Amino acid sequence: MNATAIDEWMMRHALTLARRGLGRTWPNPSVGAVIWRMEEGQLIIVGRGFTQSGGRPHAETMALSMAGEAARGASMAVTLEPCAHHGKTPPCAEAIVKAGIGRVVSAMTDPDPRVDGGGHAILRAAGIEVVAGLLADEARAVNLGFIHKIVDQRPLITLKLAQTADGYAGVTGRQLMVSSANSKQRVHLARANHDAIMVGVGTVLADNPDLTCRLPGMMQFSPVRIVIDTHLSTPIDSRLVETCGTVPTWIMIGPNVSEKSVENMRSKGVIIERVSLDPSGHLNLRDALRVLAEKGITRILSEGGPLLAEALAEADCVDTVEIFTSPDRLGREGVLAVRSGLRQRIENQQLFYADEPVTVGRDRLVHYTRIM
Ligand SMILES: [Zn+2]
């Protein structure tokens, strides 16, 4: 293997590590780092790490502490520029210099204005060779939630929708659950790698859902649950409220809800955020997403039904769409799963590209990705 091939191989390994932390590192990005060296013609990985739950320690710190003295003169691949700002701990760029790393391969510059090239500059000033931009597209996809939070003041949004073979989400007031066990597993896995799940209050009223990750061994990775609820209609005895001591529940409300109702809900442990309304009297989703980004959320899975899905698409805030189609027909008039505002966007090949459909259990899944 030549040097470039080794760099790329190590970066792919670091990206795999970074993906492991998705959904658990907010408000920080999930980063991966690998340290390797050549000894007597042998390639040896001496350290690896990814951002730990809650955002600390950082990936570079994990990898450096694993490598110890072996970091001296070694190479490091990292999926995002090492941080340069002093937070609760000294910046990773300084730790890398101190550990004696000889060469750093970095996938992309950190868009955070506190870093923005400053990490690479610290390394170069210390005489470390820095190769920036390797596998930048892949790294951008892994870091996309963090990038949107910084650059667009909104989290990344994945829409999940389920429909019958004839295109319905179900009958009025009740949402269809995806049909196969495999699809359910996939949805629960998606819950775990997002920071939050978002639904409209209609889903809460119709289904009284838990919105937790129920995969064995992954229960503790249940994300924050967010309800878009203009008039604060979420019932006080709903599961989302009753279980908010275990898994956080945040409700985004409009400006006209009485302070008494807000206090009542807060006394149960629910986090309430007021946001503005749009001209049609609905919650201003852009404003709600800005508030969520300010609170540190980088990745949202929307399971909120057709109306919320369409509204998010029309606010131009949707990054990926997953549509599960069951082989069964509803066979009568129901609620359309993919409303026209969403359909027009995902079928516009300048805005989204669709992967080949895959079979998941009995269902067919089509994955649409926003073109950056
Ligand atoms: Zn760092």
Describe the structure.
By secondary structure, this protein is an alpha/beta fold. The chain folds into two domains: 3-146, Cytidine Deaminase, domain 2 (3-Layer(aba) Sandwich); 154-370, Dihydrofolate Reductase, subunit A (3-Layer(aba) Sandwich). The protein is 31% helix and 23% strand. The protein is built from twelve helices and 17 strands. It has helices spanning 3-20, 59-67, 92-99, 118-125, 136-151, 181-192, 201-207, 239-242, 259-266, 285-294, 305-314, 340-346; strands at 32-39, 42-50, 75-78, 103-106, 129-132, 156-163, 168-170, 196-200, 224-228, 249-253, 271-274, 299-302, 320-325, 335-336, 352-354, 358-360, 363-370. The strands form three sheets. Strands 6, 8, 9, 10, 11, 12, 13, 15, 16 and 17 form a ten-stranded mixed beta sheet that branches. It has a five-stranded mixed beta sheet with strand order 2-1-3-4-5. A two-stranded antiparallel sheet has the order 7-14. Helix 4 (118-125) links the parallel strand 4 (103-106) and strand 5. Helix 11 crosses helix 12 (340-346). The longest helix is centred in the first third of the chain and has 18 residues, at 3-20. The chain is globular, with a radius of gyration of 22 Å. The two termini are 32 Å apart. Bound molecules: zinc ion (ZN). The site of zinc ion has 5 residues, from loops.
